[in-house]
Amino acid sequence: MTQSTETPMVELKGVKKRFGDLEVLKGIDLRVDRGRIISIIGPSGSGKSTLLRSINNLEVIDEGSILLDGAQVNRPDLKGLAFERHINHIRQNMGMVFQHFNLFPHLSTLENVTLAPRKLKGMDAGSARELGMELLERVGLADKALSYPSSLSGGQKQRVAIARALAMQPKVMLFDEATSALDPELVEEVNRVMKGLAEEHMTMLIVTHEMAFARDVSDWAMFMDGGVVVEANTPDHLFSHPEQERTQHFLRKHLGAPA
Amino acid sequence: MDFNLMIEITPLLVKAAWVTVDISARALFFGFFIASVLVFFRTSRITPVRWLARAYISVVRGTPYFVQLLLVFYGGPAVGLRLDPFTCGVVVGAFNIGAYMSEAIRGAIESVDSGQNEASRSLGFGRLETLQYIILPQAAGLMIRSIGVLAIILVKNSSLVSIISVIELTYQAQRLIGSTYKPLEVFTLSALMYIVIIYAVMGIVEFLYRRATRYTFL
Amino acid sequence: MEFDFSPVIEYFPTLLQGIGVTLLIGLAVAVMSVIGGQIVAVITLYTRKVVNWPLRFFIWLFMTTPLLLQLYFLYFGLGELILIPAIVVGILGLGFHYMAYNADIFIATIRSVSSGQYEASRSLGFGHVRTLFYVILPQAFYRALPQLSNNMIIMVKDISVLSAIGIGEMVYVSQYAISVTFRPFEFYITIAVIYYLINLMMEAGQTWIERRAAYRR
């Protein structure tokens, strides 16, 4: 990746994470510049989801540091309520999209999108509604504003989830296998929304199983296995001419069917 | 069946049934606060506090309500605790049902998918905000139903305060059986009143449940 | 505040007798309510309405009215008709009460088992009755075990209520001692501790049974 002198949007330095005796992240370094789109691929258990969740502090790392736009995310020096305040503030700048959508079932689609700006930014109901409708329009679901999540398809749910994350105007979007739980015919509509974000130069980290999409949308692709980054390169290079044997083996298994 | 007798004793039993409702409603009300405090303690960061709440819940659930009632009413004065029978029934009922209710509330909260917590936290909501906006609204339905089950147990348990001479439904029924020698008539009427009370509770619970889970029907 | 547990020690043999009665009643009621509950459930599910509607009514009645009221009715009602010892009234009263609760559980588990297993068994050539006894009931029993053992744990605590109709379990035998020694606090605390210990043992037993039964479900 080309190094620039500006502050990276996301930076990881020597990140290590253990679950009991199992080390799932064995020292990860990563630098994501503003507007870049990074895909992270790898077999399940490679640590790619843990890495993404660590950036949001949903997993607490044991060693190393994570920075968001120059501000440190993990703060071992802060305890209890002080850390709570810190992390809540940091998280408002990150949008996270989950494999299983995790929409709030008791709230309408519009309320799902507007809850955070209203309660966390103190936005008044009128402006929040305007913002919410604008975002739902953007993901093509303005007509579902008053529906509840239970009446939406998987693809629609995930698009609402993206709108919900965007409502806080995040500096970076994290996608944790956003299309893995979807029926094949619903993947495309979500991919299209993500591509739209890419065209608007949103900084994105995408953990995915969709090789074709990763290759198409991202500026940089990383292959992870066993808690380390095995290989990272431009997508064209990584997918066409993988250098490491493990990468070659993985891609042979997963590039069989075009997505 | 002696219907004249039944008509004659109905006012007495209705009055007593009201005492049953009164004592149960009060115990439920205070029990809810005790339960909330227990849930709060059980999720505390301070280990002894957590441990204390667990011990309390275990002991209350592990001993008979009847013995708790006798202990507080007859044994209470030995430790300076003098309560009139009605108050004693409310207090012991509340402390007893509170232990069960704390487990019900905890169960309802834990039944909410952990992804909900993650999604809320990832937006930047704190623990309490997440509880308030995301978890509790979703736990409410199950919570209402479990509390409803406990409310019915509370109504049935309230019959035991007849032992410490609170003139509630079972006390009145027993006295009337003794004075009229018509157990079937008295039993039929008093059973009917318990059934009415319990079905009223079930109706209220169902109403609240539907209100709390409206979103699942929309 | 001064506690004096010496009267409790002095009357401990009496209390011990009370524990014996408590355990005896518990055992009798457990056997009666589990076996009876299963029979009632089978009859309720597999007979004509004339037979099963009254049964359903009694299950419902026992579950919607308080135990103590039922006990008073049995004690004064039955006591009027025939001369039977209080302890029998107590066992019958508690037994019927929990028979209803257990039957309610069995009805649910038998239904849940028979939905798939009934056809499978009939397709093998088993008749209706054999299917019931060889296939449905054993599975329904194992499925019912967790709730069943829960009911039995609650039931043992309810034995204390039998003191109200003069049955010599722990609370009743202590009441005499209390009236002589004026030490209610010490006696009731002791009874609570004993019940708590019994409860702990039953919970341990429940865990053990469920672990063993888990293979069979």
Layout of helices and strands, plus pairs?
The complex is a heterotrimer of chains A (259), B (218) and C (217).
Chain A: E1 10-19, E2 22-32, E3 37-41, H1 48-55, E4 63-68, E5 71-72, H2 80-91, E6 94-97, H3 109-121, H4 125-138, H5 154-166, E7 172-176, H6 184-199, E8 203-207, H7 211-217, E9 220-225, E10 228-233, H8 235-240, H9 245-254
Parallel strand pairs in A: 3-8, 3-9, 6-7, 7-8
Antiparallel strand pairs in A: 1-2, 1-4, 4-5, 9-10
Helix pairs in contact in A: 3-4, 3-5, 4-5, 5-6
Chain B: H1 3-42, H2 47-62, H3 65-75, H4 85-111, H5 114-123, H6 127-157, H7 169-180, H8 183-212
Helix pairs in contact in B: 1-2, 1-4, 1-7, 1-8, 2-4, 3-4, 4-6, 5-6, 6-8, 7-8
Chain C: H1 6-10, H2 12-46, H3 49-64, H4 67-81, H5 86-124, H6 128-158, H7 170-181, H8 184-213
Helix pairs in contact in C: 2-3, 2-5, 2-6, 2-7, 3-5, 4-5, 5-6, 6-8, 7-8
GO molecular function (chain B): transmembrane transporter activity
GO cellular component, one term (chain B): ATP-binding cassette (ABC) transporter complex
Transmembrane segments (chain B): 23-41, 147-167, 187-209
Summarize the model shown.
The complex is a heterotrimer of chains A (259), B (218) and C (217). Chain A is of the alpha/beta class. Chain A has helices spanning 48-55, 80-91, 109-121, 125-138, 154-166, 184-199, 211-217, 235-240, 245-254; strands at residues 10-19, 22-32, 37-41, 63-68, 71-72, 94-97, 172-176, 203-207, 220-225, 228-233.
Indicate the CATH architecture of chain A: 3-Layer(aba) Sandwich
Strand and helix order of chain C = HHHHHHHH
> In DSSP terms, counting alpha (H) and pi (I) runs of 4 or more, how many helices of chain A?
9
CATH fold name of chain A: Rossmann fold
Count of all domains of chain A: 1
Number of helices of chain C: 8
Helical residue percent band of chain C? over 70%
Tell me the Rg of chain C in angstroms.
21 Å
Major sheet of chain C: size, sense and barrel closure?
none
Global shape of chain A: globular
Please tally the β strands of chain C and state the result.
Answer: 0
Number of strands of chain A: 10
CATH topology of chain C: MetI-like fold
In whole angstroms, the N-to-C terminal distance of chain C is 54 Å
Q: Helix/strand-derived class of chain A?
A: alpha/beta
Most extensive interface, chain pair and sizes: B-C, 40 and 37 residues
Strand line-up across the major sheet of chain A: 6-7-8-3-9-10
